[in-house]
Design goal:
The complex is a heterotrimer of chains A (122), B (398) and C (251). Chain A is an all-alpha fold and 122 residues long. Chain A contains five helices and no strands. Helices cover 56% and strands 0% of the residues of chain A. A two-stranded antiparallel ribbon of chain B has the order 1-4. With 398 residues, chain B is mostly helical. The two termini of chain B are 29 Å apart. In chain B, helix 3 packs antiparallel against helix 4 (88-108) and helix 4 (88-108) runs antiparallel to helix 13. Chain C has a single domain (50-249), classed as Alpha-Beta Plaits, CATH 3.30.70. Classes of the chains: A mainly alpha (122), B mainly alpha (398), C alpha+beta (251). Chains B and C meet through helix 5, helix 6 and strand 3 of B and strand 4, helix 3, helix 4 and strand 8 of C. Strand 3 of chain B pairs antiparallel with strand 4 (89-96) of chain C.
Chain lengths: 122, 398, 251
């Protein structure tokens, strides 16, 4: 009851400013200190043994998941099976699942469940 | 005073025992879920003839009771039995708690629980399951709104309460229709299945309400007028008669059709007949009715509670019997011929539940109980005194 | 201000160019058509409707060629647990309850109904009918609720109860399986799309039984259409009105 009245807004503003500064310092520290051990090696998936890819490789790198999903719907549900664009046809040029799919996927820690049922043809 | 609600204290040793017990159930359920997930459904007793087992019995029983638990609220809001208005909050909250437990078990027993959000992405609007998804979410929303209008905005209570009452009838119709619309199995596929489920829900919800009310008031040393319990007893008797009537009509219509003799005689004498006679009729109808109609036991709160416990167990048996007997009876692939195959065609399906299934189902009970217990602990759900108006006399007593 | 057609087109081109945000990143992808893509539906021949005819008089009680071929073709394992084994096709022995007719042995598989109750009840539309009448399960969508198993009056579906490792001699054209999804006969969709008959039909022919005929009933000249016209056939549980497309002769 007897405590002095402090404008709530002022006090909170000071705290927010301190918080932001602290956070920035922390981020800076992380940036400076953590890479000392060296950056993780970027993944180098195996080069295709022949080409060209069914789409522009640059495009495939970014969109293969949507592409595969789209093709999956078309193949399974509509029966539009395009052999050259099928999942199985990837193996024509990318001979190993471990050296092609898994290298990147392990690096980015994305685990699609394709291979619970599908087998990558070797 | 009707408006004086309070939370339960939650400091007693008993409270923590119950809390601990419920947490243990939830943990067991979670353990069972991961166990089944890790090993596949082969560790359950389910097989290719009986694909829905104990978890589904628990889940569907909880869902049936969830809609039934709204009875006390509906009685006051919709049918103006004002004595029960004080239990409206309790009733709507119990509904939500039971719904949450039941749905969790259903979700966790899926073969691919990692895909459980897919029904939200790809909906097949002809599927009874999809309808039920909407019915359950809608019911939960309406119950929350109902609860809200009971705490605040009392002017909308009648409207929301009536909507929730209508919805719960449709909801249980939907639950019963999961079996009622299946024409391919001799035991399922009856238009009367859904109304029977509605009656089962009215019965079990009232019984569970009596159980929990008496339990909560006894253990918090609150006053609860016996006449309120007697009033609920009368409602319970009425609902049970309705339930029994529908069971009899179902059997009668089936027996009138010569093509169903084999199936129906199997139901009454075959491998799951013990559940039908002992569980549904004995535990669920005859024993409780005898207790409730008896002049001595029918006028004693303790024995009414016991009868309610029997009713809850009986409705559990009813759901179990619908599911298990319905699936166990072999499909009649070529009428007029006896069939046999390595895939066990023509053989009555066998089902022996395993511990993981039991724990998964009990986990659902634990979730419902935990939500309910924490609800009455932290929200003002229960009136301090359960009183009936002076001079209120029941029209009938045994 | 008015715009002639050319400037509108130019603007469209500019927008399209702008939609290519970065190398390899486009909001709108230009359609590409590979050489082996199917032709436009308007040009393709009229829709097929696959069906099967089983002549039970030619089916021997001790012959399981169709079942074995199916297991081989579709990598269907046997777990050694009869209650939970997966059967896409099975041999069923029929015995007349009135004891007038001799016993009959026949294969039972998914009937690929025209009105499939499994498709009706599937909450995620994982079970679906293809345009050519083949009822399939999109296992990417199956959540393993088993309602379809409840709804199917032919016991054509099995849940995968066990987690399995692929056997050494798998047919890589057909996926193996993850536990927890429902599966059933696909009419060997990967074969019929290539113009080959299902594995069971081929095996039945190979075993010199020829009890199984597979074909397009929308083509009046096909063998199955001709046989359905002349022979006395029946389907399973016609009373349910599901219009099954596996026909039996000689029961």
């Amino acid at each position: 009851m007897n405590s002095p009245i402090v404008p709530v807004g002022d006090r909170s503003r000071i705290n927010v400013r301190k918080g932001i500064v602290g956070l920035l310092l922390l981020m800076l520290a992380v940036l400076v200190l953590l890479p000392q051990g060296g950056w993780a090696e970027p993944p180098r998936p195996e080069k295709a043994v022949r080409g060209p890819c069914v789409r522009d490789p640059e495009w495939m790198r970014r969109n293969h998941m949507d592409f595969l999903k789209h093709k999956r719907e078309e193949t399974v549900r509509e029966g539009k099976f395009v052999k050259s664009e099928s999942f199985l046809a990837c193996a024509d040029c990318h001979t190993s699942r471990e050296r092609f799919c898994d290298r990147c996927h392990a690096y980015v820690a994305v685990a699609p469940n394709c291979f619970e049922c599908h087998q990558y043809p070797k | 005073m009707l408006s004086e609600y309070s939370v339960i204290e939650g400091r007693s040793r008993h409270f923590f025992k119950v809390l601990g017990g419920l947490v243990l159930l939830v943990l067991l359920g979670a353990g069972a879920f991961f166990f089944v997930e890790h090993h596949g459904h082969a560790v359950t007793g389910m097989n290719n003839q009986i694909v829905w087992g104990l978890p589904h019995i628990f889940a569907i029983s909880l869902l049936v009771m969830a809609s039934g638990a709204l009875n006390m609220g509906s009685m006051s809001t919709v049918f103006a039995v004002k004595q029960f208005e004080q239990f409206g909050r309790f009733s709507a909250f119990l509904s939500i708690a039971l719904l949450a437990g039941g749905l969790t078990v259903l979700m966790l027993d899926l073969g691919r629980p990692d895909n459980m959000l897919l029904p939200m992405v790809y909906m097949n609007f002809r599927s009874m399951f999809t309808w039920n998804v909407f019915l359950y979410t809608g019911f939960a929303t309406l119950c929350l709104l109902y609860l809200w209008t009971m705490f605040e905005y009392k002017q909308y209570k009648k409207f929301i309460g009536t909507a929730a009452f209508g919805w719960r009838l449709v909801l249980t119709t939907g639950t019963g229709s999961i079996f009622g619309v299946i024409q391919g199995r001799e035991v399922f596929g009856s238009a009367i299945t859904a109304p029977t489920f509605v009656a089962a829900s009215l019965t079990s919800g009232t019984a569970l309400g009596i159980l929990l009310l008496v339990y909560a008031y006894r253990h918090t040393d609150r006053f609860l007028d016996d006449r309120l319990i007697f009033g609920m007893r009368n409602a319970l008797i009425f609902f049970m008669m309705l339930f029994a009537y529908l069971l009899v009509v179902e059997k009668f219509t089936r027996f009138y059709d010569p093509a169903s003799y084999d199936v129906q005689i199997w139901i009454l004498t075959g491998s799951w007949a013990w559940l039908y006679w002992g569980g549904v009729w004995g535990v669920g109808v005859i024993i409780p009715l005898m207790l409730l109609f008896n002049h001595t036991t029918g006028n004693r709160v303790g024995s009414i509670t016991l009868a309610s416990a029997f009713v809850v167990a009986g409705v559990f048996c009813f759901v179990g019997h619908v599911l298990l007997a319905g699936q166990a009876y072999p499909l009649d692939l070529f009428p007029g011929y006896a069939v046999s195959s390595p895939f066990l065609d023509g053989v009555v399906g066998s089902y022996t539940p395993t511990l993981p299934e039991l724990f998964l189902g009990l986990g659902g009970v634990g979730i419902s109980g935990l939500i309910f217990l924490l609800g009455v602990r932290f929200l003002r759900m229960l009136p301090k005194r359960g009183v009936a108006p002076d001079g209120w006399e029941l029209p009938w007593n045994p | 201000m008015t715009m002639d057609r050319r400037s509108v087109l130019g603007l469209g081109g500019a927008i399209a160019a702008g939609l290519a945000l970065a190398p390899g990143m486009h909001l709108v992808a230009a359609p590409q058509t590979p050489s082996d893509a199917p032709k436009d539906p308007a040009e393709s021949p009229p829709a097929k409707r696959w069906a099967m005819l089983i002549d039970t008089t030619k089916c021997a009680a001790n012959c399981t060629a169709c079942v074995d071929a199916c297991r081989q073709e579709n990598n269907v394992p046997l777990f050694g647990d009869p209650e939970r084994d997966i059967y896409w096709i099975r041999k069923v022995e029929l015995r007349d309850k009135g004891l007038r007719k001799p016993p009959v042995s026949l294969p039972v598989l998914c009937n690929h109904c025209e009105n499939p109750p499994c498709v009706h009840v599937c909450p995620t539309a994982a079970s679906f009918s293809r345009k050519d009448g083949v009822v399939l399960i999109d296992k990417h969508r199956c959540i393993g609720c088993r309602y379809c198993i409840i709804a199917c009056p032919y016991k054509a579906r099995s849940l995968v109860y066990y987690k399995t490792k692929p056997p050494a001699n798998t047919n890589k054209a057909v996926p193996i399986r993850a536990a927890g999804v429902v599966e059933k006969c696909t009419f060997c969709v990967h074969r019929i799309d290539n113009g080959e008959p299902p594995a069971c039909v081929a095996a039945c022919k190979g075993a010199e039984k020829g009890a199984m005929i597979f074909g397009d009933i929308n083509d009046p000249q096909s063998e199955i259409s001709q046989r359905l016209l002349t022979a006395k056939t029946q389907t399973m549980r016609p009373d349910l009105g599901l219009k099954p497309q596996v026909h039996y002769q000689g029961i």
